[in-house]
Amino acid sequence: MIPTIRIGIDSGGTFTDFVVAHGSRITSFKLPSTPHNPAEAILSGVARAIAGARALPSEIVHGTTVATNALLERKGARTALITTEGFEDVIEIGRQARPDIYNLMVVRPAPLVPRELRFGVRERVGPGGEVITALDQNLSIADRLAELKVESIAVCLLFSFANPAHEQAVAASLDALGLPVSLSHKILPEYREYERTSTVVINAYLTPLMSGYLSSLSHKILLVSRAYIPPTASKRRASPLRSKKAFVLPLRVMQSNGGSVSAETAAREPARAILSGPAGGVVGALRVCALAGIRDIITFDMGGTSTDVALCRGEARTTNEALVAGLPVAVPMIDIHTVGAGGGSIARVDEAGALRVGPESAGADPGPACYGRGEDVTITDANLVLGRFGDSSLLGGELRLDAARARLCLSRLADEMSRFTERRLTPEQAALGVIRVANANMERALRVVSVERGHDPRLFTLVSFGGAGGLHACELASALRIGRVVIPRSPGTLSALGVLLGDVVRDYSRTVMMKSGELNLRSVEREYAALEREAKRDLAHEGFRGERVKLARSVAMRYVGQSFEIDVPWSPRFDSAFHRGHRERYGYADASRPSEVVSLRVRATGITEKPRLSRSRVRARPAARPVTAAMVNLSRRPERVPVYSRDQLGAGAELTGPAIVTEYSSTTLIPPGRRAEVDPWLNLIIT
After folding, report:
1. In this structure, are residues 298 and 448 in contact, taking their beta carbons and an 8 Å threshold?
2. Model's pTM, two decimal places?
3. For residues 457 and 443, is the Cβ–Cβ distance under 8 A?
């Protein structure tokens, strides 16, 4: 029998991370990303994983930035929008919300569909699903779209979530074009025409690119894997791996909601995978902290391009109100806040003499100056010049760092900064400035998800991961007065582990608009039953049945007159749960005020096989011995700091700061006044 492995992949802007689960053995590694073609790094990593394990992949779960980057860079398909006559400009009008209310120079992002590609059809469905105006059957849009050479089509008719018949008829009239068509009643069957239109347009905009990428990747993985089929394998045993159908199915894609779906589903609904990679990190952090008995956490994922943070009280909080590239995406996704501060974020001096760090990133090509090709100063260069890596290499010596080149570039930055000061700055002083500005940006992001939403960060544990997170986590924890920091084992590849730990998750919803006191429970039960039938059918297509399927009901509720709602679990006491949830979220509740159920929601989960995380036995007399020492600049002047190898720190090992802990995927800086201990799950707990 051919042995098999499971591979988790997280494609980042600088590195692509791999976690390989082979029975109870879990290994990980990183490769430089290939931004021009993300599949190149993935295929190299899959080949390395197969060769190292001498086994074939039975499943590959992929956290991808393809959809995110296409949306940010406006490199999606030429998309047309078909909507109800009179509503062609909804995506351009938007909402009255003004994030910068006193800014008179705001420039709103241009709509993804230009005016000449937006078409209105004569029809009207009422909010209860009744047909007010029949659909004009003399549609001539298909010929016009062919002339305009569109590549994808979004269809969003008014109140189609209550009655999808008109959308289905429009889709049927477009079949002859052979183009991908995104229908709003399938992507987002909820009210709010602007958010629904925006979401379905984004889905259509990304579908051709995502579909082509995943199809090509599946095929290439199949070809790579064929080359590793053991020659001793019989034809009968090897044959299942030689058909495209058999090998496309194991490729799954992480969604923004923290669950994965088949590549086939992700290709049809790419709007659900916009925060694919960061979601995997949150899932991984929650899992390792749950094993360690830690419930309330703030995740801090600092990679090469950006920093992603999320606050979790026992579970990941999802939202339907996310903005990506200034555009609303109303499908459920983990509530993650992102800032452009990663190891590759570029430092510069602006026209007024202020030091800026990010959001531009050196990425994987050319990368930080110390990688040997770039010319711009990055956060990684600043940390290297300050001696905070404890060495001049990363990835266990695979990536040598050019300290002299980093210092030269920082000297140029110091000269620029000196023009606006009364004294001459050294490269070390410039580097300290870069770190302080970067930390301020990341601290602001942590405050957004905690203090600004009514949470006291002192009651949470900061969980740091990503390749660059460990160098900044303790300083950020001190700024927010967080008493405990957790650095999981192999923090640089935790997001790749998280995509393997995630289940298959599908979300379903339907807007009903019923006042709580007038709720027809039989009608609600019928609606839930219909959603659950659809969920079970879709999960069966993904390969999940019986006990491997879990269904959870919830309701989106609000007080009558409010504009936005919150989700609460469905139960006989749903109204009381809503008042409690409202008080927790907003600080007040009014049980005498009438409430209403806006939407019914079902989350369907297909329970996947997960890597087994092993627990280590605590040593009777833990001892931590440094492997070397380094001259490290922590604030004003260099001092000698012990450097520990994390591979040599067993469960129960203790050490005190200042100290540096090095490992393959990351480096951790423990400042003075902090104490670290390795727990039985090999997490580094810093207090």
Report:
1. no
2. 0.90
3. no
